[in-house]
From TrEMBL:
<comment type="function">
    <text>Part of the outer membrane protein assembly complex, which is involved in assembly and insertion of beta-barrel proteins into the outer membrane.</text>
</comment>
<protein>
    <recommendedName>
        <fullName>Outer membrane protein assembly factor BamD</fullName>
    </recommendedName>
</protein>
<keyword id="KW-0449">Lipoprotein</keyword>
<dbReference type="InterPro" id="IPR039565">
    <property type="entry name" value="BamD-like"/>
</dbReference>
<dbReference type="InterPro" id="IPR019734">
    <property type="entry name" value="TPR_rpt"/>
</dbReference>
<dbReference type="GO" id="GO:0043165">
    <property type="term" value="P:Gram-negative-bacterium-type cell outer membrane assembly"/>
</dbReference>
<dbReference type="InterPro" id="IPR011990">
    <property type="entry name" value="TPR-like_helical_dom_sf"/>
</dbReference>
<keyword id="KW-0472">Membrane</keyword>
<keyword id="KW-0802">TPR repeat</keyword>
<comment type="similarity">
    <text>Belongs to the BamD family.</text>
</comment>
<keyword id="KW-0564">Palmitate</keyword>
<keyword id="KW-0732">Signal</keyword>
<feature type="repeat" description="TPR">
    <location>
        <begin position="81"/>
        <end position="114"/>
    </location>
</feature>
<feature type="domain" description="Outer membrane lipoprotein BamD-like">
    <location>
        <begin position="42"/>
        <end position="237"/>
    </location>
</feature>
<keyword id="KW-0998">Cell outer membrane</keyword>
<dbReference type="Pfam" id="PF13525">
    <property type="entry name" value="YfiO"/>
</dbReference>
<dbReference type="GO" id="GO:1990063">
    <property type="term" value="C:Bam protein complex"/>
</dbReference>
Length: 280
């Protein structure tokens, strides 16, 4: 599920600029290295170069710690700001998602006007997205990733990260709709029709652009027919046929209705009709 293109691109940009400065700074101070007395604190350039090397070698945990050390020892240097973001990236690569989120969020809080702040928002979303579980389990990470990527698109609609954020928003919404469908089917098979209808209604009203909508409409036909609410069943089938005329779900719904001498007929006053008019 991991996406590295945008993340890696930003890492390379940051690293290229900072390492160039690092090499220049080390060269400038190398002449008097032998005369410098030993002390615990190390030059910022040296720590940053070590961190970047560790990152290149795939030693992500060590790299994160070294980037953190840049900020700890030299909090007011120009290196500290970028090291903070690089630490977040390193934690992400090490699958230490909570540390990555905390570091990225601190970067956002301290440097809201930084040119790379969009990347920090995006990285927070990725850390949640990487931990999305299947629809049979809790969807907290799906909801958090959705919120984080929506924030990226809202704040930085023209950034390099917005296209991928929009894609992941769609995937997260589809995942959440899938969870509602799973619960709805469970209720439906056990004859808990009102509870099932409420779940399918959530899909129709909140996740109407997802792939689960045709099935949700069909399940509404099933549930309403089981309750004897024929008008709503006919409306669900009519809306399904109008919006998804070639789907297998419509064929199944049509067969259910005609088996009871009913036809798909839309009731314009139904909540189903109102929900679709608000989107299409």
């Amino acid at each position: 599920m991991r996406t590295v293109t945008a993340v890696t691109r930003t890492y390379r940009i940051l690293r290229a600029g900072l390492l160039a400065a690092c090499v220049a700074a080390l060269a400038a101070c190398s002449s008097d290295d032998d005369d410098r007395p030993a002390y615990v604190e190390r030059p910022v350039e040296q720590i940053y170069a070590q961190a970047a090397n560790e990152l290149d070698q795939g030693e992500y945990r060590k790299a994160a710690q070294s980037f953190d050390e840049v900020e700890r020892q030299h909090p007011y240097s120009t290196w500290a700001t970028e090291a903070q973001l690089m630490a977040a990236y390193s934690y992400y690569q090490a699958n230490q998602y909570e540390d990555a989120i905390a570091t990225a969020q601190r970067f956002i809080d301290l440097h809201p006007g930084n040119p790379n702040v969009a990347y920090a928002y995006y990285l927070v979303g990725l850390c949640h997205y990487e931990r999305i579980s299947d629809v049979g389990r809790d969807q907290e990470m799906t909801r958090k990733s959705l919120e984080a990527f929506q924030e990226v698109v809202r704040r930085f609609p023209d950034s390099a990260y917005a296209p991928d954020a929009r894609l992941k928003i769609d995937l997260a919404r589809d995942h959440l709709a899938g969870k509602e469908m799973e619960i709805g089917r469970y209720y439906l098979t056990r004859g808990l029709y009102i509870a099932a209808i409420n779940r399918f209604r959530t899909v129709i009203e909140r996740y109407q652009t997802t792939t689960h909508v045709p099935e949700a409409l069909h399940r509404l036909v099933e549930a309403y027919l089981s309750l004897g609410i024929e008008r709503e069943a006919q409306t669900a089938a009519a809306v399904l046929g109008y919006n998804y005329p070639g789907s297998d779900w419509y064929e199944d719904s049509y067969a259910l209705l005609t088996g009871r001498n009913l036809q798909p007929v839309e009731d314009k006053g139904s909540w189903i009709s109102r929900a679709f008019r608000s989107v299409f």
